[in-house]
Amino acid sequence: YGKNTIKLLRRHKEGKKEFVKEVEVCTHLRLTSAYEYLDGNNSFVIPTDTMKNIVMVLAKKNGIPSLEQFAIDICTHFMTTFSQVAYVKTYVQEVPWQRLHKNGVPHIHAFMCVPDGIRFCEAEQCRNGPLVVFAGIKDLKLMKTTLSGFEGFYKNEHTTLPERNDRILCGELFCKWSYGECRDFDFDCIWNKVRECILDAFSGPPDCGVYSPSYQKTVNSIQMCVLSKVSEVQVIEVILNNTFYTVVDMKALGCTNDKEVLVPVEAPYGSCACTLGRK
After folding, report:
1. For 45, which of 30, 103, 123, 156 is 20 to 30 Å away at the CA?
2. H/E element, 91
């Protein structure tokens, strides 16, 4: 049981400059007994309102140096404070506020919410077990307008999809990776490195790009790039929910069909998923 959707904004000042971190937290516990379920005995139950207040107090006392460290602080608090807690899991996701800039100069207290992917993390621990940390990015929408195709696929009497060697590749990406047993990592630095690997593998070099023969190959390229460049990542899961675009027939409107006007196919949509780890 636990408390979902604990929302808070943590702000602090360094001189005249303001800093903010807005997060949404979910914290779940498993207790050493089930008296509350079997007997209606609530003597071991930590109220979910108490759980919410603990999250607020930890944000106040410790700040949020990184999402992962905040999740670790929450797990550690419940494990060290309550002997009846057998397992704790904490999920934290960040609202993507970015500082405003004017002519390259950062504003001291103004921010803009930029939807370029949502950072999240999870920390979980069983009593007498290791504290395990996961991190990720979700709702990251990516597109490349060419150098993507889909050919040579299996066909039978139900196949109507034509082969294509020049299409738009667009999708919403979910990526989650494991650090294994928690150590003293620079979580912010690692998260930024993984995000850079995702963008590089998806797009290819800026002057020429890279050909994608399938969504599946793109997913694998992302995973291989991360595992080769970020040694702290042990296992990585990537899900790419595809958005398809169809070319509008412009001939009836007296125009040529040059693939310049397309419409998204809202549903149904495809999805590719793969989990890859080190040996």
Report:
1. 123
2. strand 85-94
Domain end position, chosen among 75, 109, 129 = 129
User: DSSP letter string over 172-197?
Assistant: EEEEEEEEEE-----HHHHHHHHHHH
pTM of the predicted model as reported, rounded to 2 decimal places: 0.93
Residue numbers in the chain where pLDDT is lower than 50: none
pLDDT score, position 238: 98
**CB 86, CB 128: distance < 8 Å:** no
Report yes or no: 67 and 59 within 8 Å, Cβ to Cβ: no
CB 169 within 8 A of CB 204: no
In this structure, how many other beta carbons lie within 10 angstroms of the beta carbon of residue 36?
14
Annotated binding site for urate: 48-49, 150, 167, 216, 242
Residues 106 and 147 reside in one and the same domain: no
253 assigned to some structural domain: yes
Same-domain pairing of 34 and 150? no
Name all contacts of 47-51 with Cβ < 8 Å and 24+ positions apart: 48/1, 48/2, 48/3, 49/3, 51/2, 51/3, 51/6, 51/27
- Choose among 98, 267, 88, 272: nearest CA to 175: 272
In terms of domains, do 167 and 122 share one? no
The tokens for 273 are: 């998923």
Overall domain count for the chain: 2
* Tokens read off for 67: 């999402």
Q: Which residues are annotated as a binding site for O2?
A: 48, 242
Q: What is the CATH number of the domain that holds 64?
A: 3.10.270.10
Known binding positions for 5-hydroxyisourate: 48-49, 150, 167, 216, 242
Q: Based on the fold, state whether residues 79 and 165 are members of the same structural domain.
A: no
The pLDDT of residue 95:
97
Tell me what pLDDT residue 100 has: 96
Query: What domain range includes position 104?
Result: 2-129
